[in-house]
Amino acid sequence: MSEPRQTGAIGGTGGAGGTGPYDLITMGRIGVDIYPLQTNVPLSRVETFGKFLGGSATNVAVAAARLGRRTAVVSRTGRDPFGDYVHQALRDFGVDDRWVTPVEAYPTPVTFCEIFPPDDFPLYFYRRPKAPDLVIHPEELDVDAIRAARVFWITGTGLCEEPSRTATLAAVEARAKAGPTVFDLDWRPMFWGGEGGASGDGGATGAAAMATARPYYEAALAHATVAVGNVDEAEVATGARDPKRCAQALLDMGVELAVIKQGPKGVLAAHRDGRTAEVPPTPVEVVNGLGAGDSFGGALCHGLLSGWELEPMMRYANAAGAIVASRLACSSAMPTRDEVEEFLGAR
Q1: What angle do CA 230, 231, 235 make, to 5 degrees?
Q2: Looking at residues 156-178, what average pLDDT do you find?
Q3: What is d(CA 34, CA 115) in angstroms, rounded to the nearest whole number?
Q4: For the chain, how far is it from start to end, CA to CA, in angstroms?
Q5: Most exposed: 11, 126, 217, 338, by fewest CB within 10 Å?
Q6: CA nearest to 98, candidates 90, 110, 106
Q7: pLDDT tens-place string over residues 104-144
Q8: For the whole model, what pTM was predicted?
């Protein structure tokens, strides 16, 4: 199966080279994933690990670059060997690292996980006393580049602390919906002083964390054109848990396209003009579900850039996510165009 027919594509030069506006600029979390090379083993007993580039916004940029798009990341690392590794990995993936700058005071974050397929992948974030990617200052932003980018991507994590919160909101406000502006709802309650999931019974302080986050989510949505997240993440922004109610609420809050990921129930996309698409999941033997959502995000940006209709765009993004779920790593597992086409063609 070939890629969907393009209608009204807005182009792309591919790779980190080239001139003119970037196809995609993402802003947010960056770091190093230290993932076990053994599955179904508690972290306390794991003996071998692999080192990978990580961070959701970074993974989305990598995913889009693997699909031939010219991408860049706005973020910060520590001035340390892991920071050096992040820069080298970005370049190896063809992602422009010019806006990834060092912070003297804090180390580059690392993230560990446990892998218990098919649906249990606990994450352990080491981001204290503060993660450098939360020390992005508004005055450091290249506003002209952000405004000119064909797609701009922010995350909920970028809103959890200052000065990143103000910088993230300043970036989307300055962009002024000049093109697709995607808000990845990206709910990590522990970054907001919470525990557990986002549902009402999701943790001892889950509700309080959501209440703290909601005004900032609302502020970001006022300047976004696309919102994407799972039901838990959408609940943070809207207070609703029914996927269709979540999507409508996000549209009412100002976006043009709401994308609600429903795990085993597939994905729902709803556009302000009344178009909708509900696409079932793509069956796959799950190895590590972490990173699948970022692959979905990179493919979503690829579809937006290509001007695809909702249903083929969701099918393509689902396929890209499924491929990563069938692999161990995140960034290095992101598929190429040929791999996604081959995967779809076999279905």
Answers
A1: 120
A2: 97
A3: 12
A4: 9
A5: 338
A6: 90
A7: 999 999 999 999 998 899 999 999 999 999 999 999 999 99
A8: 0.92
